[in-house]
Amino acid sequence: MKPSRFAEPAAMLPGMLFLALVACTPSDSDSDSAGTPPPMGEPLDVPANEWTWVDVDGTTCDDGSQTGMAVNPGTSNNVLIFMNGGGACWDYTTCFVAQTAAKGPFAGPQWAQVDGELGGTIMDRDSADNPFADWTFVFVPYCTGDLHGGDIVVTYEQNGDSRSYNHTGHTNILRDLERLGPTFTDPDKLVVSGASAGGGGTLLNYASFRWYWPNAKSYLLDDSLPMFEGDAIQSWMRETWIETWDLHTVVDPVCTSCDSDFSQMHVQLAADFPDDRMALLESMQDGTISNYLLMSGPTFQTNLEQLDADVLTPSTQWNRFFINGSSHTMVGSPSRFTTSDGDNLWPWLQSFVNDDASWTDVGP
């Protein structure tokens, strides 16, 4: 099984998506602070060059069950984080009826279904093309419905039925980092990557990873979740995500203008980490994300081109790999993705992480 793709939405009901939110209770998590040393837990004791599932105290899936992460230490002093995808939800209908997000539990038995089946992905040690082959891999599962950004437990109610949902993706990242930080103390290079919902997680959590590893040469790799400008992501949807998932915890410290314009996360992260490289992978009319954002394929392409022109191209740090079509996510099989000009994703990723001066935008 490849890393899970962003869950296809069931019946989308735009007028009902945010009506069922009733009560929110903030979860107990630490806030990031540039002037405060990050909290550290016990280091991991895991063997090199094999996957080990680690239950992590304080992490939860949507149903409150404990989750964790899978770790595979490499032989180099470099670390690749991968945040999995699997949809999103923000009310009773999307979370419990249409179930548009991957749900828990996700622990050892669920990881066992993924372990050993990552051939061809960026976590494949046997691929001759993979620039990450000897790196340490960390697989972060996704079962919180919040783009790995939430910091809250929400009670949703509909027709007299009341259910709790743990939107605690960011809380989980912090708990994971408390174990990873003292285990991999000073990596030379760090790649924070994710696909689909996990791509959103790269933007929402990048500052937290850099908090733990401020000295690493670092790279952000967002596979297939662009944060469009202004109301390209409709204001009601943007505001609902922020309030329902309590994104203030991760967004406000990074960017005061991001509540009204998610694209400013691209801008501010580049400003905060001026020596880092940042990349967006996307198809021009991504059928999955356009569906979630309630826009047609051509409208998605227009918004993507606008983001590229206004935000990515002016940056000296952001480059993009764009392909034609409506496919969704690429890091699960980089060999399959080649631009109309013949640029394959594997060599582009090699240039990206090897600091090649020729690394640049490719695609339409």
Radius of gyration: 19 Å
| Biggest β-sheet: strands ordered side by side in the sheet | 2-3-5-4-8-9-10-11
Tally of structural domains = 1
Kindly report how far apart the N and C termini lie. 30 Å
The portion of residues forming beta strands comes to 15-25%
How many DSSP-defined strands?
Answer: 11
The helical percent reads 25-40%
Query: Helix/strand/pairing class, anyone?
Result: alpha/beta
CATH class: Alpha Beta
- Count every helix, treating DSSP H or I runs of 4 or more residues as helices: 10
Tertiary shape: globular
Which stretches of 5+ consecutive residues score pLDDT under 50?
Answer: 1-31
CATH topology: Rossmann fold
Largest sheet: 8 strands, mixed
What string, H for helix and E for strand, traces the elements in order? EEEEHHEEEHEHEHHHEHHEH
Q: Do you know the CATH architecture? A: 3-Layer(aba) Sandwich
Mean pLDDT metric: 91
